[in-house]
Specification:
404 residues; alpha/beta; 36% helix; 10 helices; globular
Length: 404
């Protein structure tokens, strides 16, 4: 019947249209998924000044870890403080020369009780330069050592780009991933203006007002779980390059940052820059920390970031700084042990020095009074700029540290 044939043709056309619509929807979904994944994996490669960084837009997928600081240098070299996957230099081993003192101030009365020290396991970010290398080099004879001794360990996640509008999502992706795993993330905001005194790791926010806004967005991503925040490596210990008024303004901004982070998540432990045992005297460092609000707006100090000083020296130094700082009894310290297994190199050898080794495995169970954690803040194997481009992963250097 003609009417039957017409109805069949009409039904056939409708089925083809429906099939095309489903196909287009599937393609669109795939494009969105691929675009999101590419955004995460390629985060940190758009601006050579910045360290590699996670650029997550939605959990649970997380972006790559940024390259981190190299140790702060000896007198002849600048002291950078972050690295990059697009590699940008990081902090170099901290200086050992003395600098003009920050005028001591009377300790302010504590305004908040420190958060309880974390006792959970630390979070290992699922993407990093070392993990990328391990996946890409299954047949390299160094791979088993690098994988088991470095890639398998938890390490810090650096946020070194001034990227308002994006930073909250990036931090949130990391903290949600850590919460889902029942672990504690270590987060490093690194965007203070005049970062690294204009040295190899220069960059950061254009001014302190922009930094305050960025830090507010950073805090929005912290969530409600336990977290460790390493607030701006070198921002205090390497501040003598600033004028007195600029230094005071920076310290006021760091105090605001500490308040903002702890208000956003009372379970986050915020640690301020304590330099290291080969740099400033404890009294001088404590005076600067006090001026930056560490006693009232933080939970303690961090030391040895990207440096090589032995753990025993750092724990003793940290206790002396804390004693001079005063403040709540709950203030503690964390020590970067990523490369301090053989202690500091000879004076002047700060850039990927030979003969160094991995230090203690990251843990929040140190067994030491007032020492809250041993952390890998600097990612072992990421270059200071001599074994490879600053901030880039160098398997030769990583293998030497792992077998040192």
């Amino acid at each position: 019947m003609p009417g039957t044939r017409v109805r069949r043709r009409t039904a056939h056309r409708e089925r083809r249209r429906a099939a095309r619509r489903h196909a287009l929807l599937a393609v669109a979904s795939a494009v969105v998924a691929i675009g999101a994944t590419a955004g995460l994996i390629d985060a940190g490669h758009r601006d050579g000044r910045d360290t590699a960084r996670p650029e997550p837009t939605a959990p649970p997928v997380l972006g790559p870890l940024p390259a981190v600081p190299t140790p702060t240098p000896t007198p002849t070299a600048p002291a950078p403080s972050a690295s990059s996957a697009s590699p940008a230099p990081a902090p170099s081993p901290s200086r050992t020369t003395s600098r003009p003192s920050v005028a001591p101030q009377a300790p302010p009365s504590p305004s908040a009780t420190p958060a309880p020290a974390p006792r959970n396991r630390l979070f290992r970010h699922p993407r990093s330069q070392v993990l990328d290398w391990v996946r890409a080099n299954p047949d390299d004879p160094r791979r088993p050592v690098i994988e088991s001794r470095i890639a398998a360990r938890p390490a810090a996640v650096w946020f070194a780009a001034h990227n308002p509008g994006e930073i909250a999502g990036q931090v949130r992706a990391v903290t949600r991933g850590a919460a889902a795993a029942g672990r504690v993330p270590v987060l490093v905001p690194y965007a203070i203006p005049d970062r690294d005194c204009g040295g190899a790791s220069k960059g950061g926010a254009p001014d302190l007002a922009a930094y305050d806004t960025w830090m507010g967005e950073f805090a929005q991503g912290l969530g409600a779980g336990a977290a460790i925040v390493i607030l701006e490596p070198d921002a205090i210990a390497l501040s003598d390059c600033l004028s007195a008024s600029d230094r005071a303004a920076r310290f006021a901004s760091l105090a605001r940052a500490g308040r903002t982070l702890r208000s956003a998540n009372p379970r986050a432990r915020v640690y301020f820059d304590g330099g290291h045992s080969g740099w400033h005297a404890p009294a001088k460092q404590a005076a600067a920390l006090r001026a930056a609000g560490a006693a009232t707006n933080g939970d303690g100090i961090f030391t040895n970031v990207a440096n090589f000083h032995r753990t025993a020296d750092e724990t003793a130094y940290a206790r002396r700084v804390l004693a001079a700082l005063g403040g709540p009894a709950g203030l503690g310290a964390v020590v970067d042990t990523s490369r301090n297994g053989n202690g500091a190199p000879p004076a002047g050898q700060w850039c990927d020095p030979a003969g160094r080794a991995l230090g203690r495995t990251p843990t929040t169970r140190t067994g030491e009074a007032r020492i809250d954690a041993y952390l890998w803040v600097k990612l072992p194997g990421e270059s200071d700029g001599c074994s490879g481009a600053a901030g880039s992963f160098t398997p030769e250097y990583a293998y030497a540290l792992a077998t040192g």
